[in-house]
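User: Okay, second chain of the day. Same drill as before: sequence in, structure tokens out.
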Amino acid sequence: MPPAGLRRGEALGLRWDDVDLDNGVLRVRQALQRQKGEGLKLVPLKTQRSRRTIRLPENLVKVLKEHRAEQAAECLAAGTAWNNPRGLVFTTHIGTAIEPENLYRHFRAVCDAAGTAARPPAHLRHDPARSGRGHPNRTIMEILGHSTIVTCCPSTRRPRSTSSKRRSGDSRRTVAVNSSKRSPS
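Assistant: Same drill. Structure tokens below.
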């Protein structure tokens, strides 16, 4: 769900209990991952910052409402074959969890059919941050669930000098500090 800045596992692990369409928010609480020998499991998020509440744009609320109605129709069509005990938002046509790698395969097929180069889905989740230029870096960091600003906003990194200074046998690198003021991006 790139428009909300979710990671693939966060989107696939999203439950309807975590989505409040009336108030236009979703809570990121867990991720879906393939665990060796255990299959697909809901797992805790890696960091406390990954646990977050995201305000959804109106157009995404509308899409999720339509998706919920489509999922209800799939449930009726599947009958007793429907299998979504966790209440996942994104499922197969019979309610089972979506295999993360299958999501990527499907994404590549859609891009190929559209004649577009397939960017890795992980890159797509940063699109909300790119379109949010003018927002404070901390806000972007919180939306993406990063633990530090440097992770989500590379412009805040300080470049390292390729030259090194040696002082009395010390081979520490000299760090170049960019003193120009940057506007928030």
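Helices lie at 8-12, 58-78, 100-114, 121-124, 127-131, 137-144, 149-152.

User: Thanks, on to the next one.
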